């Protein structure tokens, strides 16, 4: 499939480009905002590059794509306006364009807590979770075949290929998940029918990724 990686220049996005580009299974199309980011994407293994900005018109980036992985994020420290512009409105625009151009699969990198932003007292984080939750809901209501992945705290540890995947993970204490394993889950979600039209949370666990997703 032609897979558009949105947020390719982010930390998790970099890992996605590298993994997808080197796998040879699919064509990794890296979406970046600036020309000067192209060289880095090519070095990581992107098969193709497209210049587009989520805060502007992105229709040209979506044309010809079979699947989209949304891994962009303004982060929780950029301020409410930027958070809503990228994580909410940018994601919604991408969903609409994917629907318009017949994209077969949309994999959304969301966040644990997106379904319940009122659970945090941190106002920046609350805005981030509200934006993520709104984008998730917009994707759910679309006609697209979707997967919404909500990881817990992210680490830069080495991947171990073992996770816990559930609609709601109750035991959160001192747990996280390597970004590389999140990337592996997103890539697996492109073709794994067991997670079609599902929302689930992930953390490091004791089951292989394929097995954990099949249990969904």
Give a description of the structure.
- By secondary structure, the protein is of the alpha/beta class.
- 37% of the residues lie in helices and 22% in strands.
- The chain has seven helices and eleven strands.
- It has helices spanning 11-23, 38-44, 59-62, 80-100, 123-141, 179-188, 209-214, and strands spanning 2-6, 27-32, 48-51, 67-70, 105-109, 146-151, 154-155, 162-166, 177-178, 198-204, 207-208.
- The strands form two sheets. A nine-stranded mixed beta sheet has the order 3-2-1-4-5-6-10-8-11, sandwiched between helices.
- It is globular and about 40 Å long.
- The two termini are 24 Å apart.
- N-to-C order of helices and strands: EHEHEHEHEHEEEEHEEH
3D shape:
globular
- Strand line-up of the largest beta sheet: 3-2-1-4-5-6-10-8-11
Unreliably modeled segments: none
State the total count of DSSP E strands.
11
Biggest sheet record: 9 strands, mixed
Separation, N- and C-terminal Cα atoms: 24 Å
Average per-residue pLDDT, rounded, comes to: 95
Give helix % range: 25-40%
Which helices and strands appear, and what pairs or packs with what?
Elements: E1 2-6, H1 11-23, E2 27-32, H2 38-44, E3 48-51, H3 59-62, E4 67-70, H4 80-100, E5 105-109, H5 123-141, E6 146-151, E7 154-155, E8 162-166, E9 177-178, H6 179-188, E10 198-204, E11 207-208, H7 209-214
Parallel strand pairs: 1-2, 1-4, 2-3, 4-5, 5-6, 6-10, 7-9
Antiparallel strand pairs: 8-10, 8-11
